Amino acid sequence: MTDLQDDLFGQAPRPAARPQGVQPVPASDDDRALAARLSPHVHLGTSTWSYPGWQGLVWAGRHSESLLSRSGLPAYAAHPLLRAVGIDRGLYRPLAASDFQRHAEQVPPGFRFTVKAPSLVTDAVLRQEEGRGQQPNPLFLDPSVAQSDFIEPAVEGLGATVGALVFQISPLPAARLAAMNEQFDRLHRLLLALPRLPHGVVAVEVRDAAWLTPELTALLRDTGARYCLGLHPKLPPLQEQLPLLRALWPGALVVRWNLNRLHGPYGYETAEKRYGEFNRLMDPDPQTRAELARIIRGTTGAGQDAFVTISNKAEGSAPLSVRALAQAITGDAPGG
């Protein structure tokens, strides 16, 4: 009977195969048009890419954090507004060139990575798992370790996708804060020892306002490194950090928007609990977006690159913050 039915009516169509793996959300016409209005020097993105709650914003389906961490980058990079991303996991242990190369092979031309140096060289103390400092770190700002465990593998593996290689210096213990001249000398020696990058820039981000002095400006200018504008409650507001950027002009802009100021300097856990799935702008900050947009327009309008990564803890949802910032840059921003 089945054969007769097939002869009379043809075979019934088979259901389409379900796409395997992590699939991107189809890009909207609005996002494509917005991306087309951005300068190719504008590289906006998020601090990482492994959040299940971005379903419907970045991912077409629901996936585990572990799967997204392993396999989500191509889908993330397919979003027209996401032209950059942070690689933070190298903070906890150095990554090999092959790790970086695997990431670079999954993104389109024009995409850029912002990479944090291992805490092995950026933290002045050796810390326990819960984050408490145990004892002084003998490799703090060590030039040879920075070169071998960070700069060389990142440059070799990422190639032209290098955006910013960031030395984010953790909060200093009291003894080191009382001897800042020594810390400036250490940082100066490290930066002088690094080679000029074939692509992207080296940048320095700090967590103590004690770094924000003319000494930092002088050593960054002397070594060609950039200041990473860190938007974090432990530092002065954005406007108060701008004189340092002006003193280092011209050059690429590096920004990491880490945490909304309303949560205070130790508010990561509070923000994480409040923002849940990270799929809504729960604490919109249009003023910061407007100020960033103005700086980005000025930087990229002069032919310099801007590498900007945003955390979920900035406003509640990093992909939505990226869209809102892109609208502010192009002049299409809605209020908040």
From TrEMBL:
Residues 1-29 are annotated as: Disordered. Gene3D superfamilies: Protein of unknown function UPF0759. Transmembrane segments: none annotated. InterPro entries: DUF72, UPF0759_sf. PANTHER family: DUF72 DOMAIN-CONTAINING PROTEIN, UNCHARACTERIZED PROTEIN YECE. This is DUF72 domain-containing protein. It comes from Roseateles puraquae.
